[in-house]
Amino acid sequence: MEQRILGKTGRNVSIVGLGTWQLGADWGNVDPAQAQAILAASVEAGVTLFDTADVYGDGKSEQAIGKFLADNPGLGVTVATKMGRRMEQRPENYTLANFRQWVDRSRKNLGTDTLDLVQLHCPPTPVYSNNEVYDALDTLVGEGAIRNYGVSVERTDEALEAIRHEGTASVQIILNAFRLKPLDEVLPAAKAAGVGIIARVPLASGLLSGKYSKETTFAENDHRNYNRKGEAFDVGETFSGVDYELGLKAVAEFEQLVPEGATTAQAAIAWIAAQDGVTSVIPGARNVDQARANAAAATVSISEEFDAGVRWIYDHYFREAIHPRW
């Protein structure tokens, strides 16, 4: 699989990675053996980037990755974890003392002395402009607890603020065919600053898989059931914040663009990877077949006509509500 340098980390990672939120919680029940099989299938397909967080299943996702890497040493996989959601979301909680506690817990879960990449996990907006936060992260780098740090954001202005800071190695942001706002400013700014871009929620929580309908139901403990209006966390994390039924109409249009030989999900992933400035796309996988199919998206070619079609769908269905031109 094609590899790209992940911003200021200097590390090569696959253009399609693996998001592992689903290996912890919030997507229904998770079988530990299935989690190990998904990780193995992804690596066999060329994936070299795992994205996780300390709160995914209260550490279960990190632990699953740690077990896999311990059982399979020397794979060259980069693990990007996230921290900050284990306490009340107040800017004053983002301190060096708390960072040390969170990082130590993640190091234990992942079975490593030094974390490859730690991302602030969508903290309160004032955190991104607090120089003391970046000083604390630099201290952890100096102490050898982490190699690099980045941010995971909800909003484009947060991304732009983080990019301004010299130590920021990467930005993780929601980007998919139904969420184009980052294309305007964030991707160009990141590229100019040498900051990597990790694109999350690439399938709009499964909408862009083309497998859902009005009749589809989700488990009670699945965020696609309980967070449709942002009841538990930012609504952008669930179906990219778009109305579910409107999203189904847009998917029907999107499916008409999909090139022969590719699935709807593969085309959606490939389109993101083709955007200038994107380093890696991190779809999740609930089973081995999904993991393999997602990785295969790296071989799908995106035409100018396909790209134009994606932008037309966005303008027609979503721009006015999400991202007006003026």
Description:
It contains twelve helices and ten strands. The termini are far apart. The model has no long low-confidence stretch (mean pLDDT 94). Strands 3-4-5-6-7-8-9-10 form an eight-stranded parallel beta sheet, covered by helices on one side. The longest helix has 15 residues, at 96-110. With 326 residues, the protein is an alpha/beta fold. β6, α4 and β7 form a beta-alpha-beta unit. It is globular.
Can I get a quick summary?
The chain has helices spanning 32-44, 60-71, 96-110, 131-143, 156-163, 186-193, 223-226, 244-255, 264-273, 288-296, 304-317, 319-322, and strands at 3-5, 12-14, 18-19, 49-51, 78-83, 115-121, 146-152, 168-174, 196-200, 280-281. By secondary structure, the protein is an alpha/beta fold. Helix 1 crosses helix 2 (60-71) and helix 8 (244-255) runs antiparallel to helix 11.
Question: What's the SSE blueprint?
Answer:
Blueprint: E1 3-5, E2 12-14, E3 18-19, H1 32-44, E4 49-51, H2 60-71, E5 78-83, H3 96-110, E6 115-121, H4 131-143, E7 146-152, H5 156-163, E8 168-174, H6 186-193, E9 196-200, H7 223-226, H8 244-255, H9 264-273, E10 280-281, H10 288-296, H11 304-317, H12 319-322
Parallel strand pairs: 3-4, 4-5, 5-6, 6-7, 7-8, 8-9, 9-10
Antiparallel strand pairs: 1-2
Helix pairs in contact: 1-2, 1-10, 2-3, 5-6, 8-11
- Helical element count? 12
**Overall number of strands:** 10
Major sheet description = 8 strands, parallel
Going across the biggest sheet, name each strand in turn.
3-4-5-6-7-8-9-10
Assess the beta-strand content as a share of residues. Answer: 5-15%
Poorly predicted ranges: none
Q: What is the end-to-end distance?
A: 40 Å
The outline comes out as globular
Structural class: alpha/beta
Helix percentage range: 25-40%
* Order of secondary-structure elements: EEEHEHEHEHEHEHEHHHEHHH
